[in-house]
């Protein structure tokens, strides 16, 4: 038997367990005296009266007791008293037998019982032990049965009362015998009530409630009185990966509180609170031990919790202070159960919770972190079931409110981390639906902040979930913005998560997501790569097979219908698909279809899962259609893809991709058709591409791709009207792809994805005789980045008159955005540095978004409905002010020239049948080879010929002949210059070239061994990157120019000496006389900062120094000065006003980038962008001795009348080049050809 000694009987409330009343104690003492005085007589009677077997057995037992007690000289030890109690138990068992109640044995029984009772009462050391009380109860029960005296009934009641209290007292100590103590206490209490006793006995329901609460607090280790706080506690332990305690204390608490509730009348005021306490205990047990299980046997506690909390809420009047609190607890319980359920019943719980939360949380001040988290999850569940994005917005608001709670966060830091992480997940879902960059930016911010909060080892569990969400968010933003920093960071975290996956506490679904990400990653972290790679080796297949083995194990661990089971099916399908893409084994393709078909047939799927899996199944059928050419796969693919599309909202960001997939399915059916002349599938294909391009929802890149395929495919089959519409839509999407919210360098990278789009569109416009439209498209699709930068500098005087506040804010945002666009964030090292770096990127994106909003607001003003829209072609006709402007378009379809002449409202079309992309490319290769042979090569690299004695024939002249016969002469013929050569001053002709033609010296076209067969005999040539740029350059300065600044770097650190630079500046100084002011900065004084400042204060600038072209990042191209590089990025940060000529007497200042030929990414265009109206530059490296000749002739011409007019710079350069050509010889092309003029 169990013995603990005396107890202080501390109750849950802090009060002592009540002792028996004074009257009952006094009565027992009197009886004890009586028994003690007759003890010897009774014993003697036993010794003499031995006529019965019972008496003999009782006599033996009493004697043993007396011997035991007689041998003890002091209080009995625990072990000794246990022996005494055991002998007493044996004697009482004899006396309790039915045969002991015969008449002859009644006296024996009564005397023996009174003897034992006397012994128990005289044992002060152990009389309050439950075992002592149990024996006294048995004694008093026997005495009452033997005597039926009223005073004996009262004694039994008092004994039962004391025993009840004693056993209840034992419930304070959680042990394996607690259930016994509870049962016996209830039994004693029931017996006491059966004796018609209604005195001042203990309120057992109250005591059980207090004991249950105490045991509950002992289990949790804190004062937890609310469901939300219970979940906070549970989450803290689960997220911190602490092992749960044994359930004994919680089980005792549940037993006590359940009994308390059963014993509490419905009218009792404490019943609702006791029901609520019981509910939270059941919820605690479920959350602590069964939350990861969905077995019905493990749902008992959560069901009981809801039942008890529902009763508590129903018994609480609406005007009760705790009414809304109890409703919030009930909502929390419904949410908890919904997380474990599936299908209709789960949604019923979600909707019940959703109906209860808003009023409860808005009125209940003592909300907890977990209430808001549970509310958010309920809303998220509704969204995933197709209830709309408003649920996600509400969920974000709920969690945002939770982060503002004044809670002792330090005690439950993992919960706060979980909330912040979940905010990241919600924002990512917003992005997945709407595609707004602010949502994915917020998602990454929250995940990163959550990661910073998980620095301890016990945080590994939640860290894995955060890392996975962060990886997926970074990849999503990379797919949208193509920022390599996002991809690099995602791969870094992916490697970390993969290497520690077993320690990260990921759920099965999260493990599947991790392995899916790994399969798709092209990082080389593990040998898994994305489908389509041709160089995959055995290690890839081994890793893939390992993933498949694991997926099969997962699949067998969960029954059909379980969420995890369907997730495993879809994962297996993707793995088989990956293996098919490598091995091309059709069995893998069949298996992939089998598993994905099973996954999509699952009864309980979220709307999101169903949509995604249906499209994946459609893709696999389409792949098999292409592989096996079985038409039935076409029917299946179309059916699944159409079903998937029907589940997407009209504005969903994936809608364009889904439509594009359907278009490709139709096109594949068209391709394998036995009747190629049938247009049914072709029409269906183009309709889907059209719908994708025009869809409200869709990533800009997806819509642009759809529009391009729509236009190009329509062109290919001769549907020109549809093609024109497709190109119109494609060109309108370009600004969204090459977006102002990205840095200039990143926008240049984006332009590579739309290379030649404008050229193809213009070619179709020209062939359709829509020349103005062709010019518009060329303006929209070329020089994009520079045009965007120029747009930021648009004067806003007129808008100021209409809305000064709007104009002021637009001017501020434009300025900030212009500066931010030229800033590249430093490479982040560490998470904290990443936050700082990413904030710069996000700031730029928010500015771009606000900028567009301000423009839209300005367009609401009637007079500004076309504010900052692309100029219509009719406006472009006015660019031809100083002479004809010729736009030459190079396309795979046709090559043409469009001529704009002064005072003419028509565009003249000149077909160029002798020109093709291939011929232009050949000419570029020939030119490059020639420059290499002459030691003139891009980026200043010189290579000595391997065989200088027998050099191959120079092809430079062939290039110039091609340009003359194929382009220049046809244009001059149409202009009438060949038949009627200009007399006197040659006319100006400005070339606007496209594609790779921009890399060729069209201004030098001609035969140099025939009279009047070269372009320079007929016109003075200039270039302009676009027509719009020419409009800006032709504007008249507000002040007259009078300052010339010259920069020379004869001895630049790390570069070869340029002695000719000093002579250049001497020539300029010679020609500059009052009122012209000449200033110069030479050699060591020429620092980047000083030069920029001087440029700002001067009208013209002459730069005589080394320069270089950066092909990796064009904006880092620049001029080498004393303390570094004056880069193009630094120059265009300046918004110079009223500047004139920029003479760039350096190497490669007009050498464009082959990848970005239509963007004019060179220093010369940068000077136009910085505000200079006219630029003299070089296409490749120049001879140092030639530069002073050109400078002398140019400035001698420009400054001869003591005035500065940049508009004469083209003619001055023309004359200077003629002088140099005559000096070095016509055939020294590499020396005089590189000098060109750009601008007005």
Automatic annotation (TrEMBL):
<dbReference type="InterPro" id="IPR011990">
    <property type="entry name" value="TPR-like_helical_dom_sf"/>
</dbReference>
<protein>
    <recommendedName>
        <fullName>CHAT domain-containing protein</fullName>
    </recommendedName>
</protein>
<feature type="compositionally biased region" description="Basic and acidic residues">
    <location>
        <begin position="20"/>
        <end position="32"/>
    </location>
</feature>
<feature type="domain" description="CHAT">
    <location>
        <begin position="963"/>
        <end position="1239"/>
    </location>
</feature>
<feature type="region of interest" description="Disordered">
    <location>
        <begin position="1"/>
        <end position="33"/>
    </location>
</feature>
<dbReference type="Pfam" id="PF12770">
    <property type="entry name" value="CHAT"/>
</dbReference>
<feature type="compositionally biased region" description="Polar residues">
    <location>
        <begin position="1"/>
        <end position="10"/>
    </location>
</feature>
<dbReference type="InterPro" id="IPR024983">
    <property type="entry name" value="CHAT_dom"/>
</dbReference>
């Amino acid at each position: 038997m169990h013995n603990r000694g005396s107890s202080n009987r501390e109750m849950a409330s802090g009060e002592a367990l009540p002792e028996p009343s004074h009257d009952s104690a006094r009565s027992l003492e009197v009886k004890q005296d009586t028994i003690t005085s007759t003890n010897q007589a009774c014993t003697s009677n036993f010794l003499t009266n031995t006529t019965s077997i019972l008496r003999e057995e009782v006599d033996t037992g009493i004697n043993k007791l007396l011997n035991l007690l007689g041998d003890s000289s002091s209080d009995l030890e625990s072990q000794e008293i246990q022996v005494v109690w055991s002998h007493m138990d044996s004697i009482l068992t004899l006396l309790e037998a039915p045969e002991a109640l015969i008449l002859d044995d009644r006296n024996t029984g009564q005397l023996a019982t009174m003897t034992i009772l006397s012994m128990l009462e005289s044992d002060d050391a152990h009389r309050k032990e439950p075992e002592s009380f149990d024996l006294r109860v048995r004694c008093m029960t026997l005495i009452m049965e033997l005597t039926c005296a009223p005073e004996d009934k009262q004694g039994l009641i008092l004994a039962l009362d004391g025993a009840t209290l004693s056993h209840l007292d034992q419930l304070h100590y959680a042990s394996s015998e607690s259930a016994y103590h509870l049962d016996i206490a209830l039994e004693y209490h029931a017996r006491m009530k059966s004796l018609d006793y209604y005195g001042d006995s203990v309120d057992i329901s109250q005591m059980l409630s207090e004991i249950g609460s105490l045991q509950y607090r002992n289990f949790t280790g804190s004062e937890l009185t609310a469901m939300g706080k219970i979940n906070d506690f549970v989450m803290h332990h689960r997220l911190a990966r602490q092992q749960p305690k044994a359930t004994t204390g919680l089980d005792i608490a549940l037993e006590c509180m359940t009994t308390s509730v059963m014993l509490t009348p419905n009218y009792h005021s404490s019943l609702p609170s006791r029901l609520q306490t019981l509910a939270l205990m059941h919820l605690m047990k479920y959350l602590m031990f069964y939350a990861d299980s969905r077995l019905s046997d493990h749902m008992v506690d959560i069901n009981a919790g809801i039942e008890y909390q529902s009763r508590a809420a129903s018994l609480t009047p609406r005007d009760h202070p705790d009414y809304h609190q109890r409703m919030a607890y009930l909502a929390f319980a419904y949410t908890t159960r919904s997380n474990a359920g599936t299908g209709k019943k789960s949604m019923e719980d979600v909707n019940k919770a959703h109906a209860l939360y808003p009023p409860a949380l808005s009125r209940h001040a003592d909300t907890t972190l977990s209430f808001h988290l549970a509310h958010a999850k309920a809303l998220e569940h509704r969204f995933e079931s197709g209830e709309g994005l408003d649920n996600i917005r509400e969920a974000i608001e709920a969690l945002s409110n939770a982060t503002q709670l004044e809670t002792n966060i330090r005690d439950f830091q993992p919960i706060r981390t979980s909330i912040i992480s979940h905010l990241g997940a919600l924002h990512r879902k917003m992005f997945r639906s709407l595609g707004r960059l602010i949502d994915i930016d917020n998602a990454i911010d929250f995940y990163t902040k959550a990661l910073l909060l998980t620095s301890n080892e016990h945080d590994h569990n939640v860290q894995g979930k955060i890392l996975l969400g962060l990886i997926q968010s970074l990849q999503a933003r990379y797919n949208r913005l193509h920022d390599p920093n996002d991809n690099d960071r995602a791969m870094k975290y992916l490697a970390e998560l993969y290497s520690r996956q077993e320690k990260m506490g990921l759920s099965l679904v999260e493990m599947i997501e991790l392995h899916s990400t790994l399969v798709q990653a092209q990082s080389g972290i593990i040998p898994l790569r994305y489908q389509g790679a041709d160089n995959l080796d055995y290690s890839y297949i081994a890793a893939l097979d390992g993933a498949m083995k694991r997926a099969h194990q997962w699949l067998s661990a969960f029954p059909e219908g379980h969420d995890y089971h369907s997730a495993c099916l879809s994962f297996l399908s993707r793995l088989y698909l990956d293996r098919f893409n490598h091995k091309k084994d059709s069995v893998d393709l069949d298996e992939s279809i089998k598993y994905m078909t099973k996954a999509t047939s699952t009864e309980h799927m979220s709307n999101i899962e169903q949509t995604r899996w249906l499209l994946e199944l459609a893709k696999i059928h389409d792949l098999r259609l292409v592989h096996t050419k079985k038409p039935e796969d076409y029917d299946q693919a179309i059916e699944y893809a159409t079903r998937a599309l029907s589940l997407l909202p009209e504005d969903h960001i994936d809608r364009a991709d889904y439509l594009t997939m359907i278009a490709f399915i139709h096109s594949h059916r068209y391709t394998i058709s036995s009747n190629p002349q049938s247009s049914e599938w072709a029409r269906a294909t183009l309709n889907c591409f059209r719908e994708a391009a025009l869809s409200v929802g869709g990533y800009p890149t997806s819509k642009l791709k759809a529009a391009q395929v729509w236009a190009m495919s329509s062109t290919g089959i001769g549907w020109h009207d549809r093609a024109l519409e497709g190109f119109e839509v494609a060109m309108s999407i370009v600004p969204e792809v090459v977006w102002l919210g990205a840095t200039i360098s990143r926008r240049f990278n984006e332009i590579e994805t739309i290379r030649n789009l404008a050229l193809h569109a213009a070619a179709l416009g020209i062939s359709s005789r829509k020349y103005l439209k062709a010019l518009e498209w060329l303006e929209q699709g070329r020089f994009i980045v520079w045009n965007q930068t120029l747009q930021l500098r648009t004067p806003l005087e007129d808008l100021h008159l209409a809305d000064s506040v709007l104009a002021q804010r637009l001017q501020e945002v434009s300025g900030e955005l212009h500066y931010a666009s030229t800033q590249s964030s430093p490479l982040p090292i560490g998470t904290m540095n990443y936050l700082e770096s990413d904030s710069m990127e996000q700031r730029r994106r928010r500015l771009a978004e606000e900028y567009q909003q301000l423009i839209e607001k300005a367009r609401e003003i009637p007079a500004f409905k076309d504010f900052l829209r692309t100029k219509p072609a009719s406006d472009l006709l006015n660019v031809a002010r100083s002479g004809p402007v010729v736009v030459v378009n190079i396309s795979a379809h046709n090559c043409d020239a469009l001529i704009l002449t002064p005072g003419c409202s028509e565009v003249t079309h000149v077909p160029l049948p002798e020109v093709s992309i291939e011929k232009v490319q050949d000419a570029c290769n020939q030119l490059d080879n020639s420059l290499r042979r002459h030691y003139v090569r891009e980026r200043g690299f010189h290579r000595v010929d391997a065989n200088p004695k027998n050099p191959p024939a120079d092809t430079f002249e062939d290039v110039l002949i091609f340009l003359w016969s194929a382009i220049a002469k046809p244009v001059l013929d149409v202009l009438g210059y060949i038949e009627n050569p200009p007399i006197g001053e040659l006319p100006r002709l400005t070339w606007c070239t496209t594609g790779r033609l921009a890399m060729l010296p069209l201004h030098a076209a001609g035969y140099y061994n025939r009279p009047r067969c070269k372009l320079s005999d007929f016109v003075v040539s200039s270039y302009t990157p676009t027509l719009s740029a020419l409009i800006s350059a032709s504007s008249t300065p507000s002040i007259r120019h009078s300052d010339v600044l010259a920069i020379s770097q004869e001895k630049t650190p790390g570069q070869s000496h340029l002695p000719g630079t000093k002579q250049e500046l001497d020539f300029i100084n010679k020609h500059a006389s009052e009122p012209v002011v000449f200033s110069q900065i030479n050699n060591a004084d020429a620092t980047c900062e000083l030069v920029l400042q001087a440029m700002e204060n001067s009208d013209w600038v002459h730069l005589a120094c080394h320069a270089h072209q950066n092909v990796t990042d064009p904006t880092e191209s620049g001029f080498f000065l004393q303390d570094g590089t004056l880069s193009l990025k630094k120059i265009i940060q300046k918004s110079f006003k009223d500047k004139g000529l920029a003479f760039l007497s350096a190497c490669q200042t007009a050498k464009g980038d082959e990848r970005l030929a239509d963007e004019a990414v060179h220093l010369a265009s940068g000077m136009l962008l910085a505000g200079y109206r006219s630029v003299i530059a070089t296409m490749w490296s120049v001879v140092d001795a030639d530069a002073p000749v050109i400078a002398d002739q140019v400035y001698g011409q420009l400054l001869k009348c003591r005035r500065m007019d940049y508009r004469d710079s083209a003619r001055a350069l023309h004359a200077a080049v003629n002088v140099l050509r005559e000096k070095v010889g016509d055939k020294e092309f590499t020396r005089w050809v590189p000098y060109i003029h750009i601008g007005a």
